[in-house]
Amino acid sequence: MVLRQITTQIKRWFPAPIVHAHCDGPCGVYDPAAARIYAEAVVSMTRKIQDLQPPTDQNPQAMATYLNTMSRYIQIKEEQAQKTKEEILILWTDYFKPQHLEQFPNLHDMFWKAAKLCSACKVEVNLQHAEELLAAVQNIHQVFWTTKNRTNVPWYKAS
User: Fold this and answer.
1) Number of H helices, E strands in the chain
2) Is the dihedral angle over the CA atoms 33, 36, 40, 46 positive or is it negative?
3) Distance (Å, rounded) from C-alpha 89 to C-alpha 32?
C-alpha cells in the first residue's frame, strides 16, 4: 500500500511527457522481403500437401508417418500465411501514408486483397490462391520500393 502511494506521488511530481510516433517503431526501416519469404513457404507447403500420397498398404507406422507429415505441412502453411499477413499489414498500417495513396490509388484494395488471400491460404489447400498470394506480395514489394525511389533491389520488377 505504501509503495503504491509513493509511486502515485512520483507520477504526480514527474509526469511522463506525451510522445507521438507514426508507428510502433519510428525508425522508418521497413522491408517486404520477409512477407515474400513467408509467401514462398505457403506455395511450397501447398505443393507438398498436394503431392503427399497416403500409404497404399495397411501399415500403421506408414499411416502414422503420413499423418504426422501432413499435419506438419498444414501447420507450417497456416503459420507462414499468418506471418505473411502480419508483415503486409504492418507495411499497410505503419509505412504507407496518404501521399502513397495519391501515387497508388489502388493501395488499400491491393493490401486488402492480399490479406484476404493470406486467410484463404490458411484454410484451403489451393495452389492457385497460394500463387496469387505470392504475386500479390510481389506487387506490394514493387510498390514499396517505388515509393522509396529504389529499383535496384532484389525481386523488383519495373512495370
Assistant:
1) 6, 0
2) positive
3) 11
Amino acid residing at 89: L
Cα–Cα distance for residue pair 27/135, rounded to 1 Å: 28
pLDDT attached to residue 4: 81
Is residue 73 in some structural domain? yes
Parts of the chain with a pLDDT under 50: 20-22, 159
Confidence (pLDDT) at 29: 77
Look at residue 45 and tell me if it is in a domain: yes
What's 139's domain CATH number?
1.20.120.400
pLDDT of residue 31: 87
**How many folded domains does the chain comprise?**
1
pLDDT at 157: 58
Q: What is the dihedral of CA 101, 106, 111, 112, to 10 degrees?
A: 120
Is residue 67 domain-resident? yes
Domain enclosing residue 107, as ranges: 29-147
